[in-house]
Design brief:
The chain is mainly alpha-helical and 324 residues long. The protein contains 13 helices and five strands. Helix 6 packs across helix 7. The longest helix is centred in the middle third of the chain and has 24 residues.
Length: 324
């Protein structure tokens, strides 16, 4: 099975002989074969990869792989994987990258930028993504509402402009948390209303006037802030002046959603749920572009992988139509 992986992967398995049980070793191999197979499917020749190439695997690409892993095809029928299976793949990749990072053979572990998916919930396979009514209410609440609690309200006063810009990029442009935190100041072109997004590939996303206005408002604040060393170029900062983390961004979204909906919601929507809502909206409004006479349900009800490349290209322009 190791013949289905690049040469450097042998070292990981060789050094874990006697450390891992045979069954665990086989499980790791299966998940890593799936990961490198995914790289092949997006145009990367995994068998010719070197450790140097491993440095170019981004957290966004890992997130895309986990998204891709949320479904599988069995005898021509799309099946959903369990949250536990997705969590296992996350753990396998985390251990794999951490091994080479500890050995000093790569410069970072991209998996650490992602939150561990919970095993007791569906990961990237949300049946009921938030609808337009909820997303509109959330944007209004972030921009004008007040969080309960004196401390939370005070913190919100400091971050309201930043949080509004982030939510606009998620809900209106479909950017993932891992993509948003990687945005640098120089990646934003407010003359062209575009953002250079560093994800699985580097792409330009065009945004609407309402989104550009929110980003511009935060940009004015951001340029007056002295950031922590190492975060000078980061667009979105924490209150401590460091580049915002995925975990902090996800917590921020859930904090507002919880305050807005309370017991009204069937579940606490995550940042990625709102990304799914953006993609669902694309399908609902553009059935002819996807080859379906009518799209029903959510993007998880059919094999999203069949046209993912096209949708990602279309997303570059779709955000120009967003109106808050």
């Amino acid at each position: 099975m190791q013949n289905c992986m690049p040469e450097f992967a042998r070292r990981f398995f060789r050094d874990n002989i006697g450390v891992m049980a045979a069954g665990s070793m086989e499980g790791y191999a299966n998940d890593l074969v799936a990961f490198f197979g995914y790289l092949d499917s997006i145009g990367k020749d995994s068998m010719s990869m070197t450790l140097f190439d491993l440095n170019h695997i981004s957290s966004s690409l890992i997130e895309d792989f986990l998204d891709y892993s949320s479904t599988r095809i069995v005898k021509g029928e799309v099946k959903k994987r369990s949250g536990a299976a997705i969590a296992r793949r996350y753990s396998v990749l985390s251990s794999f990258f951490e091994y080479y990072y500890r050995k000093g053979l790569i410069t970072s572990n991209p998996v650490t930028k992602l939150s561990r998916p919970g095993e007791n919930r569906k990961y990237y396979a949300v049946k009921n993504a938030p609808g337009i009514d909820i997303t509109a209410r959330l944007l209004e609440f972030v921009a004008t509402g007040t969080l309960p609690g004196k401390h939370a309200a005070a913190l919100q006063w400091q971050t309201r402009t930043r949080d509004t810009a982030i939510l606009m990029l998620i809900i209106g442009a479909g950017l993932k948390p891992s993509e948003i935190i990687e945005i640098n100041i120089d990646d934003i072109d407010l003359k062209e209303n575009s953002i250079l997004v560093h994800g699985r590939t580097i792409r330009t996303v065009f945004i609407s006037e309402p989104i550009a206005k929110a980003v511009s408002a935060y940009m004015s604040e951001r340029l007056s802030v002295i950031s922590f060393k190492g975060s000078d170029h980061a667009m979105f900062l924490s209150v401590k002046g460091t580049r915002l983390s995925v975990r902090s961004l996800q917590y921020m979204v859930q904090k507002y959603t919880t305050a807005l909906l309370g017991n009204e919601a069937e579940k606490i929507y995550t940042a990625h749920d709102y990304v799914k809502s953006f993609r669902n909206n694309i399908f609902d409004n553009c059935p002819s572009r996807t080859g379906y006479s009518r799209i029903t349900g959510t993007t998880e009800d059919y094999d999203f992988r069949l046209y993912k490349g096209y949708i990602e290209e279309y997303e570059r322009y779709k955000a120009r139509d967003f109106k808050s």
